[in-house]
Write a structure and sequence with these properties.
Layout (H helix, E strand, L loop, with lengths): L1 E6 L4 E4 L2 E2 L4 H11 L3 E5 H6 L10 E5 L11 E3 L2 H8 L4 E4 L1 H7 L5 E7 L7 E2 L9 E6 L3 E3 L2 E10 L26 H4 L2
Parallel strand pairs: 1-7, 1-8, 4-5, 4-7, 5-6
Antiparallel strand pairs: 2-3, 2-9, 8-12, 10-12, 11-12
Amino acid sequence: MFAIAAVSENWGIGKDNQLLFHISADMKRFRQLTLGKTVLMGRKTLQSMPGGKGLPDRRNIVLTGSTAFTAPDAEIVNTPVQAVFTAGEDAAVIGGESVYRLFLPLCERVYITKIFAVRDADAFFPDLDADPRWQVESESEVFEENGLRYQFVDYVPCEAENDLADLLPDRGESLPFVPMPDFTEMSGI
């Protein structure tokens, strides 16, 4: 599974259920990476698309809590587990904010178009630069279109630590050794 999004400098992705930016190179990249694949999205993302219909030449899976919701060219699922099993491991997560947050831990890669501008937003992608679980794998050169500077940045999860002790909270002091009580009488041995 992978995610794909275009974000502003403060990781904004949308306002009033509309994209913040329209950059033709970003749209071309989105199409190239998702064409012929399964795309996973929330109901509001689907409704923001032309005609409220799924994307052409893709299998569209829509996660919504409404069991009565229907949409042309889309398969409707009502739970995250159902979404994962329906979409499969090669699906592209395409939004919105809550869907990104829900499925980001399952993603093996995230394709971000970073736009060097800030617009008023009410939906945000998690800030991968501030998240120690993600690292930049590659960055394109900086491009410009219609006065907007942008860059394609691919993120991958950081390698898992082999030391499980790193997962424990740091208490600042070592815990004292306490011998286990003798339970021999209770065990019948």
